[in-house]
Write the structure tokens for this entry.
Amino acid sequence: MSAPESGTPRIVVGVDGSDASVDALLEAQRLAAALGGTLDVHLVWEIQLVPGAFPPPDWDPERDAGQALSAALAAAFGERPPEGLRTTISRGQPSRILIEASRGARMLVLASRGLGGFTGLLLGSVSAACSAHAHCPVLIVPPPAREESATGETAGEETTIGRKAP
């Protein structure tokens, strides 16, 4: 993907493949388009070792991160990514890398919470750390509002411990 032109507003967005991060990616693209800027998409992964736990021998976290990034871009843009889009996959502490990526950016956009299943990608603590230490304004995209009925009940399917209620 092409690098942004100098002087063009740059919007940095962190993704992890979660639906929430795709929402953040879409919001970041709306901002970039409104400002005539470019989109700088970062996926950061980190291995967090747990004593006694071993990853499968064929596990390739870099490959998995690339697949998660590709899936997020496809979910947001289909086959038509925006012009000037730049992607970066990094290994390290997500908040540190995103804070550094925010240098010179017009805005850093993150979901309020990321995946918990793919260890070390964006977590709620990352958005909190970035909002406190970024070098530019930070937009934290909340989860979509859930519709409430006139009685105050939340619309949608009810679940019971991860299963649909009867």
